[in-house]
Write a structure and sequence with these properties.
The chain has about 525 residues and is α/β, with parallel strands linked by helices. Helix content is about 40%, strand content about 15%. It has a domain at about 45-305 and about 460-510: Amidase signature (AS) domain (Amidase signature (AS) enzymes), CATH 3.90.1300.10. It has helices at about 5-30, 50-55, 60-80, 90-100, 150-155, 170, 200-210, 225-230, 265-275, 285-290, 315-320, 325-340, 355-360, 360-380, 390-400, 410-420, 425-450, 460-470, 495-510; strands spanning about 35-40, 40, 85, 115-120, 160-165, 180, 185, 215-220, 235-240, 260-265, 310-315, 345, 455, 470-480, 485-490. A hairpin with a 2-residue loop joins strand 1 and strand 2 (about 40). Helix 1 packs parallel to helix 3.
C-alpha cells in the first residue's frame, strides 16, 4: 500500500532536512555562539536541565555546544591540562543528535541526549580515541568494546567529547608522583589555585570546574572522585560499589572500584547516575547490586526539602580535627543550616574501634596490591592489541622509557604488586580485618543511631567509604582561608543513594556555594 506521496516529495523533504541541519550547524558555529547566552546565563555554568530547555526552544544546538567546549578546551587546557584528548567524532555526534532532535526520535527525550561528556582515560571507548590510564605504555592499545558505562551513555544520546586526564594508572604506580600528573597528560592544575587538583580523577574535576565540558565521569578506588571534587569545588558522586559497571575500566580492585559522575550540580550528577547505573552482564556484580536501584530512577529524589527529617551523624574525632578555625566556622554554619532545614543532627558521635581505622590503610594496601596484579593482567590480556600484556610488561616499559614516563617518580606500587602471589594468607587476613571493621565500625555507627548519612568536611572519610564499598556524595561548601575550595561529604550504607541525593540536593539548594573559577 502506498502513502500517496511521490519519490520527488521524499527527496524534497530530505533536501529540506539536510539544508536545515546545515543552517543550524552554521548558526551554532558562527558568531552567535562565540559569546553564548542562555537567558543571561553563560554556557560556563549551564546545567543539563537548562541545556535540554535550550534545545527544546531552539536557542542553540548540540553542535554549537560542542564547538563552545572545544574552543574553551583550546583556550584553557594548555594550562590546566584537564583534557587528555578530544574526540575527532564529537562534531559528527553533535550533528547526529541535532538531527535526532529535529526528527523527534525517541532517544532525544533522554536527559543526556546531545549533552557533551568527558570520560576519564581509564574507561574504554571503542572509537578513535585511546584508553591509556595516562601512560604511554598503553598508547595505541585497542579495546575489545566500549566500557559498560560508555555503552549506556551512547544509548542515551550523550556526546563523548573526549578523554579526561588523570593521575597516571589511577595514582597506583607510585606515591612519589604528583597528584594529577600523567606521562601523556603532564601536570593537571587546580583552576582555583593553580596547584594540586587531587587525583586520580583530576582531569574530570578540573574540566567540569573550568567549564570545558558539561559533565564528566570519574572512577574511585579510595578518594579518587571525592578528593578532586573537594579540591575543585564540584559535585562528586561515588556510588555503592557495583551500582555502576566497571567492565572495560582499567582496574585496581573489583572489590573497591566504582564509576561515578563529577558535575557542577547535584542534579546533573543524578541525571548521569540514572543513565550509568544498572545491570551490565560483563560485570556480574551489577546484577546483585541492581536491587538497590529504585523504581522510577534517582531523579525523583531531587527534592528541595530533602533534608527534612533526615538523621545526620557528626563524628568530630577525627574528621573535624585539624581543618583550621576558619574552615571550622564555615562548617558549623552549614551544620546550623542543615538543622534549620529540618535535619536531625546527632553530634559528637564516636566510631566504634576508631583505633583500628588508623591502621586500616596497611590492610587496604596489602589487599589492593594483590587485587591489582590479578585484575590488571586480566584486563590487558583481553585487549585486541597492546604494547603491554601484563603488569610485568608495564614495569619493563617504564624501565625502557625512563624519560617518557618520568621513572624518577618511581613505580613501587607496580613492583610490589608484581611480587604478590595471589590472594594468600596475608591478603585473606587483611580482607577479613576490613570486613570486621566495616561491620563493627561504620555499619554499627549508622545502624545503632539510625542515621541516614554521616556528614564530614573535605574528603577525609573516603577510606571508610572505600573499604566498605559504601556510597558518598560531596557538595561544594566554601573556601578555606588560603583560597582552596572544600566540600561536605554525605556518606551512607550500601544502596542509600536515594537518601543521599535528598540530603545533598537539599544542602546544595540551601547554600548554593558553587562558583566558577576566575580564569
Amino acid at each position: 500500500m502506498g502513502t500517496g506521496k511521490s519519490p520527488l516529495c521524499y527527496l524534497s523533504l530530505s533536501l529540506f532536512s539536510a539544508l536545515l541541519l546545515i543552517l543550524l550547524a552554521t548558526l551554532a558555529s558562527g558568531t552567535g555562539l562565540q559569546t553564548p547566552n542562555f537567558h543571561g546565563l553563560s554556557f560556563r555554568e549551564i546545567t543539563v536541565q537548562q541545556i535540554q530547555v535550550g534545545f527544546k526552544r531552539n536557542q542553540f544546538t548540540s553542535r554549537g555546544l560542542v564547538e563552545f567546549y572545544l574552543k574553551e578546551i583550546s583556550r584553557i587546557n594548555p594550562v590546566l591540562k584537564g583534557v587528555l584528548e578530544v574526540n575527532p567524532d564529537a562534531r559528527s555526534q553533535a550533528d547526529k543528535a541535532d538531527h535526532e532532535r529535529y526528527t523527534k526520535a525517541p532517544i532525544s527525550l533522554s536527559p543526556l541526549h546531545g549533552v557533551p561528556i568527558l570520560i576519564k582515560d581509564n574507561i574504554a571507548t571503542k572509537d578513535k580515541m585511546n584508553t591509556t590510564a595516562g601512560s604511554y605504555a598503553l598508547l595505541g592499545s585497542v579495546v575489545p568494546r566500549d566500557a559498560g558505562v560508555v555503552t549506556k551513555l551512547r544509548k542515551a544520546g550523550a556526546i563523548i567529547l573526549g578523554k579526561a586526564s588523570l593521575s597516571e594508572w589511577s595514582h597506583f604506580r607510585s606515591n612519589n608522583a604528583p597528584s594529577g600528573w600523567s606521562g601523556r597528560g603532564g601536570q593537571g592544575k587546580n583552576p582555583y589555585t593553580g596547584d594540586d587538583p587531587c587525583g586520580s580523577s583530576s582531569g574530570s574535576a578540573i574540566s567540569v570546574a573550568a567549564n570545558m565540558v558539561a559533565v564528566s565521569i570519574g572512577t574511585e578506588t579510595d578518594g579518587s572522585i571525592l578528593c578532586p571534587s573537594n579540591n575543585n569545588l564540584v559535585v562528586g558522586f561515588k556510588p555503592t560499589v557495583g551500582l555502576t559497571s566497571r567492565a572495560g575500566v582499567i582496574p585496581i580492585s573489583p572489590r573497591q572500584d566504582s564509576v561515578g559522575p563529577i558535575c557542577r550540580t547535584v542534579s546533573d550528577a543524578v541525571y548521569v547516575l540514572d543513565i550509568i547505573a544498572g545491570i551490565d552482564y560483563n560485570d556480574k556484580v551489577t546484577i546483585k547490586t541492581s536491587r538497590y536501584i529504585p523504581k522510577g530512577g534517582y531523579a525523583q529524589f531531587l527534592k528541595a526539602d530533602g533534608l527534612r527529617g533526615k538523621r545526620l551523624g557528626i563524628v568530630r574525632n577525627p574528621f573535624y580535627l585539624g581543618i583550621g578555625n576558619d574552615t571550622t566556622a564555615i562548617v558549623e554554619k552549614h551544620i546550623n543550616t542543615l538543622r534549620k532545614r529540618g535535619a536531625v543532627l546527632l553530634d559528637n558521635l564516636e566510631i566504634p574501634d576508631l583505633a583500628a581505622y588508623d591502621i586500616s590503610g596497611s590492610a587496604e594496601t596489602i589487599a589492593l596490591l594483590a587485587e591489582f596484579r590479578i585484575s590488571l593482567n586480566e584486563y590487558l590480556k583481553e585487549l585486541v592489541a597492546s604494547p603491554v600484556r601484563s603488569l610485568a610488561d608495564a614495569i619493563a616499559f617504564n624501565k625502557k622509557n625512563p624519560k617518557l614516563e618520568k621513572l624518577e617518580y618511581g613505580q613501587e606500587f607496580f613492583i610490589n604488586a608484581e611480587a604478590t602471589k595471589g590472594i594468600r594468607k596475608a591478603e585473606k587476613e587483611a580482607l577479613s580485618f576490613m570486613e570486621r571493621l566495616n561491620r563493627e565500625g561504620f555499619e554499627k555507627l549508622m545502624i545503632k543511631n539510625k542515621l541516614d548519612a554521616l556528614v564530614t568536611p573535605t574528603n577525609s572519610v573516603s577510606r571508610i567509604l572505600a573499604i566498605g564499598g559504601f556510597p558518598g556524595v560531596i557538595v561544594p561548601a566554601g573556601f578555606r582561608s588560603d583560597g582552596h575550595p572544600f566540600g561536605l561529604v554525605f556518606g551512607g550504607l550500601k544502596g542509600s543513594e536515594p537518601k543521599l541525593i535528598e540530603i545533598a540536593y537539599g544542602f546544595e539548594q540551601a547554600t548554593k556555594i558553587r562558583k566558577p573559577p576566575k580564569l
